[in-house]
Design goal:
By secondary structure, this protein is an all-alpha fold. 72% of the residues lie in helices and 0% in strands.
Length: 111
């Protein structure tokens, strides 16, 4: 990742953490990493390993695509992340309905 991509990742991570009212110390405990390391990631100084990145995503309950938006080649990745975040708020029945709608739409596109 480039320096700019690290900074963007860190800013998004920081914003989500603050939005969810999780301190950097709490996040570090949940991810089993040093609090200083969390702050270094948020400042864009360090790039987390894949295993740490996954722990961060799980702890913050955010999709990897959301944190990486702007770093990925796909322009749609940010949209996918936003949709994923909205889907997490649905009930299981609502999730099933949305999934069925998407599958039906994709089938129609393939025809």
């Amino acid at each position: 990742m480039t320096k700019e991509e690290n900074v963007l990742l860190g800013k998004r991570m920081n914003a989500v953490r603050k939005e969810k009212r999780i301190s950097s110390n709490e996040l570090s405990e949940q991810c089993e990493i040093d609090p200083v390391y969390v702050r270094m990631i948020e400042r864009g100084v360090r790039t987390p390993s894949l295993s740490v990145f996954i722990k961060i995503c799980n702890s913050l309950r955010v999709s990897p695509g959301y944190l990486l938006a702007g770093s990925l080649e796909s322009e749609n990745e940010g949209q996918y992340g936003a949709i994923f975040e909205r889907m997490k708020e649905l009930t299981p029945k609502q999730t099933d309905m949305v999934t069925a709608m998407i599958e039906t739409m994709l089938e129609k596109l393939e025809q």
